[in-house]
Design a protein that fits this description.
heterodimer; A: about 110 residues; mainly beta; seven-stranded mixed β-sheet; four-stranded antiparallel β-sheet; about 0% helix; about 55% strand; B: about 110 residues; five-stranded antiparallel β-sheet; 11 strands; globular
């Protein structure tokens, strides 16, 4: 059972470039989310989805876009990368009960 | 303002002792409180969940308490081992939302 799979693991972008972080889960979970983790800041919610076709903003959504066309996939798009988006990004999913959240292994993004 | 506080200083203890980590929160009324373990370069891993109407939860060497009056949760690891060294995160979930709000974590170091 793969759980939550994120790609790429590492990425370096130039300021102004766009890219998509991929996230897929094979647990048939309704809820998926993206967090970023910065030193001393903890995990901060970027966007989340409660099911296919439904997305909403979290705490720090600016500069990011998401879509949820299938239950399995929840890609995160950086529209025009900025150095402030240098961070570790975690995708997560959980069941409708919402009692346990499963994280991917993270994507390390550096914007130069 | 709403805050979740975990001790930012690392907790350094001797193997075999009990480690106690603290999570304090203000201006939240969580329905659930969760604890996660995070190893360097990895995603957080769920450990325990405690509900607002529960005072204590145990799982093997782990124990969590939840005091909604003090707005505090304590996380204990008994008979600690060097393999327990990691960062431990607490997270709150409100009853009406799937969103999890994370503290910044406390690093635990267990010396052999």
């Amino acid at each position: 059972n793969a759980g939550v799979t994120q790609t790429p693991k590492f990425q370096v972008l130039k300021t102004g470039q766009s890219m998509t972080l991929q996230c897929a889960q094979d647990m048939n979970h309704e809820y998926m989310s993206w967090y970023r983790q910065d030193p001393g800041m903890g995990l901060r919610l970027i966007h989340y989805s409660v099911g296919a076709g439904i997305t909403d903003q979290g705490e720090v959504p600016n500069g990011y876009n998401v879509s949820r066309s299938t239950t399995e996939d929840f890609p995160l798009r950086l529209l025009s990368a900025a150095p402030s988006q240098t961070s570790v990004y975690f995708c997560a999913s959980m069941t409708g009960e919402g009692n346990t959240i499963y994280f991917g292994e993270g994507s390390w993004l550096t914007v130069v | 303002s709403q805050k979740i506080e975990q001790n930012s200083e690392a907790l350094n203890i001797q193997e075999g002792k009990t480690a106690t980590l603290t999570c304090n929160y203000t201006n939240y009324s969580p329905a659930y409180l969760q604890w996660y373990r995070q190893d360097p370069g990895r995603g957080p891993v769920f450990l325990l969940l405690i509900r607002e109407n529960e005072k204590e939860k145990r799982k093997e060497r782990l124990k969590v308490t939840f005091d909604t009056t003090l707005k505090q949760s304590l996380f204990h690891i008994t008979a600690s081992q060097p393999a327990d060294s990691a960062t431990y995160l607490c997270a709150l979930r409100m009853d009406s939302s799937y969103k999890l709000i994370f503290g910044s974590g406390t690093r635990l170091l267990v010396r052999p």
